[in-house]
């Protein structure tokens, strides 16, 4: 379960991404333009310390890009190359926002979601002391039992996907889902969203 706060983030997630995305090798679109959210899904951190959200975003007239994000209360050692930016959360304080492909917590929960079929976390917002369920903006599906532990991450990015190699699992995060084929194999996480009614591959996982 993901418990969301009624809060403001400055700069916003989309403002951070509009600045960060043009420097990625897999981004297709102009620099200096707003990006829009097309959908998002969340996973739970079992330790309840790291926020984990995957956003589908893109410029108004460009392709959809998949960006897994992790939100941390302090910098992640050794992950400077994967830092999207920092922001001020009106409830939780300073947040360090990372591309999840460089975060071992994201790698572990993604592997578990794909290989155990656990799916996305239910999202709740606290309103006047009550928890209200937030309807998801995406549907994701996965299958195949048996999720191993992952260990450290060794991520590399190319023009279509990011490969995350861990001690026990290889993960492939598709950066522009629905556009072209990604050379990957293994159990698949697929998803659909408004404007993409049929499910397309979002990520792959296979044991090493």
Automatic annotation (TrEMBL):
Transmembrane segments: none annotated. It holds the Pfam family Mak_N_cap. Keywords: ATP-binding, Kinase, Nucleotide-binding, Transferase. InterPro entries: Mak_N_cap. It comes from the Bacteria. Residues 20-103 form the Maltokinase N-terminal cap domain. GO terms for molecular function: ATP binding; kinase activity. This is Maltokinase N-terminal cap domain-containing protein. It comes from Micromonospora acroterricola.
């Amino acid at each position: 379960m993901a418990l969301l706060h009624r809060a403001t983030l400055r700069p916003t997630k989309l403002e951070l991404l509009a600045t960060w995305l043009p420097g990625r090798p897999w981004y297709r679109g102009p620099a200096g333009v707003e990006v829009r959210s097309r959908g998002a899904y969340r996973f739970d951190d079992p330790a309840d310390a790291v926020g984990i959200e995957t956003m589908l975003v893109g410029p108004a007239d460009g392709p959809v890009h998949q960006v897994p994000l992790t939100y941390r209360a302090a910098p992640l050692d050794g992950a400077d190359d994967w830092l999207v930016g920092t922001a001020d959360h009106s409830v939780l304080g300073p947040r360090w926002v990372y591309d999840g492909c460089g975060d071992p917590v994201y790698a572990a929960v993604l592997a578990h979601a794909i290989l155990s079929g656990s799916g996305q976390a239910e999202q709740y917002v606290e309103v006047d002391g009550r928890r209200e369920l937030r309807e998801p903006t995406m549907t994701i599906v996965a299958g195949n039992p048996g999720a191993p532990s992952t260990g450290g991450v060794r991520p590399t990015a190319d023009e279509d996907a990011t490969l995350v190699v861990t001690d026990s699992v290889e993960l492939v995060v598709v950066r522009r889902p629905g556009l072209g084929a990604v050379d990957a194999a293994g159990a698949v996480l697929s998803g659909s969203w408004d404007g993409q009614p049929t499910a397309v591959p979002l990520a792959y996982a296979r044991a090493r």
